[in-house]
Amino acid sequence: MFGMCIRLVALVCCLLPWMHAVSETASQETAALALGIDGAAFTLNGKRAFLLGLSYYGGLGATDEIQQHDLLEAKRQGMNWIRVWATWAAFDNDVSVVDRDGKPRAENLKKLQSLVARCQQLGLVVDVSLSRGNGVSGPPRLQNLEAHRQAVKAVVTVLKEYRNWYLDLGNERNIKDQRFVSHDELKELRALARQLDPKLLVTASHAGDLTKDDLREYLLKVKLDFLSPHRPRNAQSPAQTEAKSREYSNWMKELGRVVPLHYQEPFRRGFGKWEPQAADFVADLRGARAGGAAGWCFHNGDERHEKDGRPRRSFDMRALNLFEQLDEVERAFLKQLRK
Fold it and tell me: Alpha-carbon distance 83 to 228, whole Å?
């Protein structure tokens, strides 16, 4: 018996260095999380992966404790992606990483870098979105090309060492208000981002369904790495997503360039007259996957019909974390998602 114990101790001593090496390698693999593209799919560390995540727009305004809680909870829900804005200033809380002229705001840039680094350690991809703004998420900014160029430089420069993020050059850039970014401007901004970091994936989100002409401009002129349409927010939308996804796929094949299709901002609760139910979220996600999309977002935000906007969800997490601000319907969806 004594001899057996001695042999077991010796075996454990021999295995300890190997176990440590395996653990260290696994840690390094997580730390080196790299987002890529393979045809119509995203990849994580070279393996095809569906980006499933949630809106975390005001994430730079959350405390470290709230951030850590939300990111760990997102992982527990089976998610691998979040979307945060680099130009967010809702509810009198300006956490934008640049000013109106695109010049860096050092403290908030540091917060963005910290968030992306934390997500890298947890195995999460980060969508970093810019917007020229229309007053809802803060005052208009980046209202000319030079200011927009400065913002791209600031963000790409501080995040260049990380491979677990991508850049959205302009949220809903096709809307003809202060958010508008022309195709010519997008082309120049895309070229600048590629010059600063050739490996960085870049998109520009589009409000509404895409036309074939839209795809031609995005794919062949601007040369975006993937498409990010924001589908209409009505009761018919969930049942249409699969067919719409297949239509985009067919158009891309006809145009000779196939890229991932990412639904980074679908419908949400608290937005308009139609209040989606848990089954609508499930149907939309299933339609996206069945139609060949590469990613989908559990979108959330404030209650637009309430004076103070509460619950504000991802739009304001200074006092409460995201998950404790979700309503019963959203919690029911997440429960189904875990199953």
Answer: 12
